[in-house]
Amino acid sequence: LSPFAELQVYADEQLYPYDSSEKAAYDFVLVCTTHSRVKTRGQTRTKQASTHMTYYHRVILYFDGASRNNPHGPAGCGWVLREMDRHGADGDYIASGKRYLGYNVSNNQAEYEGLTEGLDYISDYIECDGLYIRGDAQIVVRQMMGEYEVRSPNIRPYYNDAQNSLARVCCDFYYFRHVSRSANWEADELANEAIGDYA
Fold it and tell me: Could you tell me the CA-to-CA distances from 160 to 114, 136, 164, 172 in Å, in that order?
């Protein structure tokens, strides 16, 4: 999709609000705040927004996770952040990260960790008008959009972490998109490098 088409999808989504009890989890419009209270797998912490934020018009976050011998591991995750150019394509490199997750981590759990790691970086250092989040794990993308329910108790904490991290991001709007593995190759390489560094 072009950025203009993505913006239209974003606008269309506003016309069909979710159930009010779930609306906070799936809001597509975010408001920047100086402080936010975040609960992360049993730990609650208060985060103060950085005063050294870098502004971008539009940025793209690619995320991925990998678990060899799924769901036993070893597992790793990775993410890549790029500026979106005026044509809606990948622009200049901004940042990237990877992390080894150890054993007994499933592929979907690793995918969520990659997403959360990328969102945490953005919330600490980046503010933008539009955030375009792309991953090759369809179930994760659709769960974050509210199209799929999160039924597994093994996934729920990871989903909650990702939603909490997303709520801290300073942007006017965000849009999730499922992409092919080939389009997500940089994040995929980082996730596997993270495993290779330790396993």
Answer: 14, 20, 6, 21
